[in-house]
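Hi D.,

Good news: the full-assembly prediction came through. Inputs first.
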Amino acid sequence: MGSLEPSGDIGGVHDREWARLGRPGTWFTATQRVEIAAAARGGETTSPAQIAARQIYTDPAAIRRDWLADLEADGLTLAEYVEVLGIVARLRAFDTLLFGLGSAVRPLPPARSEAPPTRVRVDATINGAWVPTVGIAFPPTVLSSVPAENEAMHDVHSVLYLAPTPATDGHSMGNLRAARDGITRPQMEFIAARTSQLNDCFF
Amino acid sequence: MLRASAEANDETIDLRGVGDVSVDSGVRHGHVLGAVVEAAVLRDADEMDIARERAVQALGSAGAVRAIAVTANFEMMNRLLDAVGIGPPASRLAIGDAIGIPLPSRFR
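Then the structure:
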């Protein structure tokens, strides 16, 4: 059979993500962000950020603290690592989405600006993860030391799955009876558990 | 969350079905959903075509798209957690044994 078409909200968040990818980030320029995404997909990996991108995309379960320490020694800051992580984790989500739908991989966007990164700093501390977070480290705060990346993750999460915070349409994680497009919450959680098992993610 | 959501929806599930495909999880269309996830995560194009078609038959086109979207979301979340060293909370360590997926020693 042929490919499936994503619904309007899913197509919309994919477009937003591609727009974000092509803009300057917090610690990387637009060109660098696109290069990080390209490295994740198998392109050139000459910088620590690009090396991190490839590992996060292909085999995140093999990542250990010592490996991250080596990247830091090679010049990658933890704040930069968090931005790489945000870029690559969302890229993987959308690449999986299109693969599942039976569509061709979407070409990366061009860098749309050569403006410098915003370099926004927030108060974050090591609190349960290898990277600083605002508050205790758990899924909603993993990227919180780089707010733009955290907001982007919440945007994607809310559309593909459920919103981490209460939502007027009932599509929120707090609603254990939520359903979307006929998929019930237990079915969503079965998908989540099976995906995590295949990825060797034990959270 | 699987167990909690099943209880909230008055459904009976067998958590072993998450890690062992020979066990019926009790989740409605669980085998169809599991095939979608496996093909998508493992990037098996042939199996994906089959799984997608079966998902459309069982869940409708919108449901199949949503199942794939949820899979995609957890591809993202798995990376966010593993890349920063966030493992399971101590309170959940026993669940790994219950569902037939023993946790690696680094989490114990």
